[in-house]
Amino acid sequence: MSLLRARINGQEGSELPVLDRGLHYGDGVFRTLRVEQGVPRNRDRQLARLYDDARRIGLVPPDARMLTEEVMQLCAGQPPAVLKIILTRGSGGRGYQADAAATPTRILLLYAMPEYPAAHWRDGIRVRICDTRLAQNPRLAGIKHLNRIEQVLARAEWNEPAIAEGLMLDTGGRLIEGVSSNLFLARDGVLLTPDLSRCGIGGLMREMILESASAYTRAVQIRDLNIDDLLAADECMVCNSVIGIWPVTQLDERRWPVGPVTRSLQRQLDEA
Amino acid sequence: MSLLRARINGQEGSELPVLDRGLHYGDGVFRTLRVEQGVPRNRDRQLARLYDDARRIGLVPPDARMLTEEVMQLCAGQPPAVLKIILTRGSGGRGYQADAAATPTRILLLYAMPEYPAAHWRDGIRVRICDTRLAQNPRLAGIKHLNRIEQVLARAEWNEPAIAEGLMLDTGGRLIEGVSSNLFLARDGVLLTPDLSRCGIGGLMREMILESASAYTRAVQIRDLNIDDLLAADECMVCNSVIGIWPVTQLDERRWPVGPVTRSLQRQLDEA
Q1: Is 0.90 topped by the overall pTM?
Q2: ipTM of the complex
Q3: Which of A70, A165, A177, A235 is catalytic?
């Protein structure tokens, strides 16, 4: 993705002190937002999740009003874009022990919107099952932290442009998420999504889909799912805040239609 | 720790491009070396391990002769120090997908040697058991990669200066390592150290202790260990390339003497 603008601790710039703990330990959290008409979508909810995640790793986040203002300034007047917000625990400390007085680093990166084929949204995508597994650690589960080497290894497993996403299992064989998306299945009209209490990232789009389903009194189950559940599903889809919802229509020989649950969730998302 | 010198891709400097994948994903590996009389200890072996780890995550390391030369230039004439070498997958790519043509970033950081009390080596240290657990993922086990948020959370659990190290268990309750060290026990003259095939970092000092024990025909077992094994041990010690070997003499109410196996390993290390 090509970088449009970068701001570090409120200053235009694209260089980071090499002692930053984000580099050394992945000691930080992030969120990725879709920017349209110069405004990041779901800004306040995304920032609230970012701050929740920061607190879960003991990182005291910066003043929210200041960060919000910086975000708005960065995005104003910009073309459609992706905004990545990173908070790290800053520099300093002695090895793994952080300096209690350290100031968190706030990094805002605005990228040009990647050109995703319209067919991904309309006709669905092909996926694969990745060999790289997700480790289980309830202490870290759900947090969008900067330790993402499992996703890097999973994404490196394929190069075929025809495969738009990889699905990841945990070390126990449970189906958890896409490499950069959350996963939903539909079966007999019930919406299913993996339990993320042991591993996985809880994206805002997942949360919004769950809310939307609930508002439309659609039956929802958050539970352990495996490959058999996937193969038995009537519909399958992946989602995140940048792509929205993409129907999954092929995994190896298995094909799914773009079904009514997927279409209705896409429509609700469009309206929201 | 206070930074003496920094070199990034061969240039003096202490700023890193904010798009570096080391920051975004912890997509890189590192090694920490002790520098004495301007020379990093066990340089070639450490670099070989660094390169092994890089290859295990699919990162093509830079020319070894070039990196060695940069290391030697950085350390020459410097006071006793700690050298941290970081290799990241560089900048670029599209999200988790790396750019196959990206050049790895090589970061050399020389820190003033921390002042560890001489008593730690001589009389031993007090440790605690950390609440933060290590996730299990054989794909990543043993690699010194930059995803170290578990260690950060574990180290944040205590502030008492009297406690010099924390011991970490995996999510299955097995004893794995110290927050920044490897762990050895001795029982009935047999040297024991945890199996690191599911999680943990394999440090060079651990490797050298295992070799040394083997050279002196001391019985060694690399196997699963738990808290009961720890409490039942005659001796306990932690090690890494910077501190060498520290006897562990206290955990809560349990005390251990600095025993003959520990002393003999320290002596062999001194001679080597």
Answers
A1: yes
A2: 0.96
A3: A177
